[in-house]
Amino acid sequence: MTSKWNISLLFVVLLAISCGGYEDLEAERAMFKKTDSLFATQRLALKKEMDSLCDLNFDTYFQNAIDSIKQKQIDEIQIILEK
Protein backbone atom coordinates (compact mmCIF):
# COMPACT_ATOMS: atom_id res chain seq x y z
CA MET A 1 0.00 0.00 0.00
CA THR A 2 2.83 2.38 0.83
CA SER A 3 4.47 1.79 -2.54
CA LYS A 4 1.23 2.76 -4.33
CA TRP A 5 1.17 6.02 -2.36
CA ASN A 6 4.82 6.65 -3.16
CA ILE A 7 4.24 6.02 -6.83
CA SER A 8 1.15 8.23 -6.81
CA LEU A 9 3.00 10.99 -5.00
CA LEU A 10 5.92 10.71 -7.42
CA PHE A 11 3.50 10.88 -10.37
CA VAL A 12 1.81 14.00 -8.97
CA VAL A 13 5.17 15.70 -8.32
CA LEU A 14 6.43 14.90 -11.82
CA LEU A 15 3.19 16.13 -13.32
CA ALA A 16 3.44 19.39 -11.40
CA ILE A 17 7.05 19.89 -12.41
CA SER A 18 6.36 19.24 -16.09
CA CYS A 19 3.57 21.81 -16.22
CA GLY A 20 4.40 25.46 -16.68
CA GLY A 21 7.23 27.17 -18.38
CA TYR A 22 4.98 28.19 -21.23
CA GLU A 23 5.59 31.86 -20.47
CA ASP A 24 9.32 31.29 -20.97
CA LEU A 25 8.69 29.55 -24.29
CA GLU A 26 6.49 32.38 -25.50
CA ALA A 27 9.05 34.97 -24.43
CA GLU A 28 11.78 33.04 -26.25
CA ARG A 29 9.67 32.82 -29.39
CA ALA A 30 8.99 36.55 -29.26
CA MET A 31 12.70 37.24 -28.82
CA PHE A 32 13.58 35.07 -31.82
CA LYS A 33 10.92 36.80 -33.90
CA LYS A 34 12.29 40.25 -33.02
CA THR A 35 15.85 39.10 -33.67
CA ASP A 36 14.94 37.66 -37.06
CA SER A 37 13.13 40.81 -38.15
CA LEU A 38 15.98 43.02 -36.93
CA PHE A 39 18.52 40.87 -38.78
CA ALA A 40 16.47 40.93 -41.98
CA THR A 41 16.16 44.72 -41.83
CA GLN A 42 19.85 45.25 -41.14
CA ARG A 43 20.85 42.73 -43.80
CA LEU A 44 18.91 44.62 -46.46
CA ALA A 45 20.46 47.93 -45.41
CA LEU A 46 23.96 46.46 -45.43
CA LYS A 47 23.37 44.79 -48.78
CA LYS A 48 22.40 48.11 -50.35
CA GLU A 49 25.48 49.78 -48.90
CA MET A 50 27.81 46.98 -50.02
CA ASP A 51 26.29 47.00 -53.51
CA SER A 52 26.87 50.73 -53.83
CA LEU A 53 30.48 50.35 -52.66
CA CYS A 54 31.03 47.57 -55.20
CA ASP A 55 29.55 49.73 -57.95
CA LEU A 56 31.85 52.61 -57.02
CA ASN A 57 34.99 50.46 -56.97
CA PHE A 58 34.19 47.98 -59.74
CA ASP A 59 36.43 49.55 -62.38
CA THR A 60 39.41 49.65 -60.02
CA TYR A 61 38.91 46.05 -58.88
CA PHE A 62 38.46 44.89 -62.45
CA GLN A 63 41.61 46.63 -63.66
CA ASN A 64 43.61 45.22 -60.73
CA ALA A 65 42.40 41.72 -61.56
CA ILE A 66 43.35 42.08 -65.24
CA ASP A 67 46.79 43.46 -64.33
CA SER A 68 47.32 40.55 -61.95
CA ILE A 69 46.35 37.99 -64.60
CA LYS A 70 48.60 39.66 -67.18
CA GLN A 71 51.54 39.67 -64.76
CA LYS A 72 51.02 36.00 -63.95
CA GLN A 73 50.94 35.11 -67.65
CA ILE A 74 54.11 37.16 -68.27
CA ASP A 75 55.85 35.34 -65.40
CA GLU A 76 54.78 31.95 -66.81
CA ILE A 77 56.03 32.87 -70.31
CA GLN A 78 59.39 33.96 -68.86
CA ILE A 79 59.71 30.64 -67.02
CA ILE A 80 59.01 28.75 -70.26
CA LEU A 81 61.51 30.86 -72.23
CA GLU A 82 64.23 30.32 -69.64
CA LYS A 83 64.05 26.53 -70.03
Envelope shape: elongated
Strand fraction band? under 5%
Number of domains: 1
How much helicity do the residues have?
Answer: over 70%
Beta-strand segment tally: 0
Low-confidence stretches: none
Order of helices and strands: HH
Q: How many helices?
A: 2
Largest sheet: none
Mean pLDDT: 84
Distance between the termini: 99 Å
Radius of gyration: 33 Å
Q: What class would the helix/strand composition place it in?
A: mainly alpha
Write up what this structure looks like:
The model has no long low-confidence stretch (mean pLDDT 84). 94% of the residues lie in helices and 0% in strands. The protein is mainly alpha-helical and 83 residues long. The chain starts with a helix and ends with a helix. The protein is elongated. The protein has one domain. It is built from two helices and no strands. The relative contact order is 0.04. It has helices at residues 2-18, 22-82.
What does the secondary structure layout of this molecule look like, with pairings?
Layout: H1 2-18, H2 22-82
Quick structural overview:
The protein has 83 residues and is mainly alpha-helical. Helix content is 94%, strand content 0%.
Features:
mainly alpha, 83 residues
